Amino acid sequence: MEHPTYCPDRFRYQRRASRQVHIGTLTLGGDAPIRLQSMTTTDTMDIAGTVEQSIRMIEAGCELVRITAPSKREAAALGQIKAELTARGHGHIPVVADIHFTPNAAEVAADHVEKVRVNPGNYADKKKFEDIAYTDASYAAELERIRAKFSPLVLKCKDLGRAMRIGTNHGSLSDRIMSRFGDTAEGMVESALEFLRICREHDYHDVVISMKSSNPQVMVHAYRLLVARMDAEGMNYPLHLGVTEAGDGEDGRIKSAVGIGTLLEDGLGDTVRVSLTEAPEAEIPVARKLVERYANRTQAAVPQADSGDWDPFTYRRRVAREVANIGGKHVPVVVHTLAGDEPLTPARLYGCGYRYSVPLDKWNLDDLACDYVYVSEQEVDFELPGTLNVVQDWRAWKGRARHVPLIDAADFMNELAWTVDRVFVSAQTHDLLNPAFLTRLVNVPQAVLVLGTTAEHAMADLRAACWRLDAAGCSVPVIWRRAYATEDAETFQLHAATDFGGLLLDGMGDGVWPEAAAMSLQVRNSTAFGILQATRTRISKTEYISCPSCGRTLFDLQETTAKIRAVTSHLKGIKIGIMGCIVNGPGEMADADYGYVGTGPGVITLYKEREVVQRNVPESEAVDALIELIRQHGDWVEAVASEHNEAEG
Ligand code: SF4
User: Fold this and answer.
1) What is the mean pLDDT of the chain?
2) Which residues pair with 193 in a beta bridge?
3) Residue having the nearest C-alpha atom to atom 4 of ligand 1
4) Which amino acid residue places its CA nearest to atom 5 of ligand 1?
5) Is 649's pLDDT higher than 50?
6) What does the pLDDT read at residue 645?
7) Ligand 1 lined by 584 (C-beta under 6 Å)
8) Which of 250, 373, 410, 454 has the most crowded CB, counting CB atoms within 10 A?
9) Are 372 and 450 in contact (CB under 8 A)?
């Protein structure tokens, strides 16, 4: 089945040709560079504090500053903030008013700032989590009501030359959209299109669109579908990319890169906001590292392949035959290079999740214990932990238990007598252009393909290679192997998360093997598991859906997130939402299992999924109450004390 296209070219890097929008003096979309932006976290009524924070963001490279306007009062205060920023020499940086639930505040804000962001999920609708049965006639009447409510802002923005973002959030779809389309990418897209059609009716086009979700897979599907639907309706509005509530630290960076990077690889995206639960100025270097990779991306095409029935709008894992613990229904494996001149000792496995206790003479595994280590030609002369396998160059391989030979493509074509349960075949994408090699992969059922590429447009090349395997009827499991030359850990995390994450989100890949000579094994390992977690292909830790905070925030989000993380980080597979306000928090934390939401100064409301279970808990008692709630629902386990100190040195 032919699926609609969602990007200019799946084999050659090319930015989607979007319409250029003017935001004050800043251009966005078209041939303008991909713009970087962030949002203040101060109370908007703290004019001086908001101005100072905005300047810190601008000095970090922020090209648009978004500020929340929960009511008309804050919307009016944006005028003072804008004036002060102008007086301090930053008048050319557009200010964006962030609006939820308050159309009247939006109209006031349009008087003062260059752009207004509205959320179609709550601009004209209140959220009551109701399931409403609509007929076509009653749905059309609802659209008419929205038209009446939204048109004044559209006309005002048009008159004043203001821009607008129609920003859909997966977690805050209206009851109307949820009732009609469900909790789907299609619902997200339709939610924006309803508002967009009203803009077009009024011949107003300075509009940017976003489709955010805290789940990168949902977010990627929604943006792709949005582009396909806009194309069908003859629209080419620019895209603002973001993963909401991505969290903090390494997890927040990896989750953001998986979603944003996957889209950038296909040429989608005209502006980026990375939402971290950190100071807003810390978001800008991360956004820059994501975006600058494409400034000089080669225009050379990678070899084309027939994508068959691959569906860019729906997740489906590629069917790979089972080879030992790889492929089939197994979660993707993690492989690391341990080669080097140093002798192999149990202590060297510490960085990939294995701790050897000398007094107890036993191995302890943590949740991030890798599956394979590659030792080149070295020998392992100690007893391996039970779940670990060793990959050895095939000429040094002696057939020992849990040792797997690694052979290159040329030798694989010649070497015939395999009596092993698995053999790793190291190849580059160009090897798959050889039909004889493909046939050999089909005919050696123990083969696992370890695939890399020398192409700069790597994700597209590896994706096409997967299509080529499928077209040849070859169900060999595939481990992605890629080496990074960077010495910067953050760049390594962002690039690996983009390259591997984009493939895994599309259901491709049965393992990851990230290499980076300058990165410790610990960094490589946590990055690999972080990518698998963010793509939800292998869950090995607690997931935190924490908002980046804004002027509505009712507690110190960074400190609280750290406090909650410290006591719950061992709860593998549990999703905890930590949200700054009751207005947007409950909706935005979408699929969290437990929620910790600011209700008022010093008080928290706790949720089990979308149900309120305890209101107005004093903040000082709220973390303990959250633990108790998790315990009551049977999801609590005691943390196992670390035996790090006992690791052999
Ligand atoms: S959930 Fe967080 S970022 Fe979103 S509006 Fe509330 S406080 Fe602001």
Assistant:
1) 93
2) none
3) 584
4) 584
5) no
6) 36
7) yes
8) 373
9) no
Tell me which long-range contacts 388-392 makes (C-beta under 8 A, separation of at least 24). Answer: 388/349, 388/354, 391/335, 391/424
Ligand 1 closest atom vs CA 583: 6
Say whether pLDDT at 19 is over 90: yes
Distance 127 CA to ligand 1 centre (A): 16
CA angle 342, 348, 349 (to 5 degrees): 145
Pocket test for ligand 1, best of 579, 582, 607 (most atoms within 8 A of CB): 579
- Ordered DSSP codes for 300-366: PPPPP---TT--TTS--------BTTBSTTPPPEEEEE--SSSPP-GGGGGGGTEEEETTTTEEEE-
Q: Is 246 in the pocket of ligand 1 (CB under 6 A)?
A: no
User: CA-to-CA distance for 5 and 74, rounded, in angstroms?
Assistant: 42
Evaluate whether 132 touches 177 at the Cβ level (below 8 Å). Answer: no
Residues of the chain with CATH 3.20.20.20: 21-292
- Measured from the CA of 100, which atom of ligand 1 is nearest? 5
DSSP string of 38-61, one letter each residue: EE--S-TT-HHHHHHHHHHHHHHT
Asked if pLDDT for residue 646 goes beyond 80, the answer is no
Q: Could you identify the atom of ligand 1 that is nearest to the CA of residue 585? A: 1
pLDDT tens by residue, 197-211: 999 999 999 999 999
The ranges of the chain annotated as CATH 3.30.413.10 are 543-632
Q: DSSP states of 87-148 as a string? A: HTT-TTS-EEEEESS-HHHHHHHHHHSSEEEE-TTTSS-----------HHHHHHHHHHHHH
Of the two residues 333 and 550, the one the predictor is more confident about is: 333
Is residue 445 a contact partner of residue 322, using CB atoms and an 8 Å limit?
Answer: no
Compute the average pLDDT of residues 618-635: 95
Q: How far is the CA of 553 from the centre of ligand 1 (A)?
A: 6
- Report pLDDT for 418: 64
pLDDT reading at 540 higher than 80: yes
User: Average pLDDT of 183-192?
Assistant: 94
Which residues are within 8 A (CB) of 512 and not within 5 positions of it... i.e. 6 or more apart?
A: 332, 333, 334, 335, 479, 480, 500, 504, 528, 531, 532
pLDDT tens digits for 347-360?
A: 999 999 999 888 88
**Nearest residue (CA) to ligand 1, atom 8:** 550
Instruction: With H, G, I as helix, E, B as strand and everything else as coil, classify residue 612.
Output: strand
**pLDDT for 328 beyond 70:** yes
Q: What is the pTM for the complete model shown? A: 0.93
547 Cβ closer than 6 Å to some ligand 1 atom? yes
Q: Which two three-digit tokens encode residue 65?
A: 């500053």
Pairing of strands 362-365, 354-357: antiparallel
Residues 375, 392: Cα–Cα separation, whole Å: 6
The yes/no answer on whether domain 333-534 falls in CATH 3.20.20 is: yes
Query: Going by CA atoms, what residue is nearest to atom 6 of ligand 1?
Result: 581
Atom number, ligand 1, closest to the C-alpha of residue 98 = 5
Question: 21-292: which CATH number, 1.10.260.40, 3.20.20.20, 3.30.70.600, 3.40.50.10700?
Answer: 3.20.20.20
Residues 518 and 597: their CA atoms lie apart, in Å, by 40
Show Cβ contacts of residue 509 under 8 Å, excluding neighbours closer than 6 positions.
318, 332, 466, 478, 479, 480, 500, 503
Q: Is 489 in the pocket of ligand 1 (CB under 6 A)?
A: no
Q: What CATH code would you report for 543-632?
A: 3.30.413.10
Confidence of residue 247 (pLDDT cuts 50, 70, 90): confident
Quick one: tokens of 515? 């290499």
CB of 548 within 6 A of ligand 1: the answer is yes
DSSP reduced 3-state for 266: coil
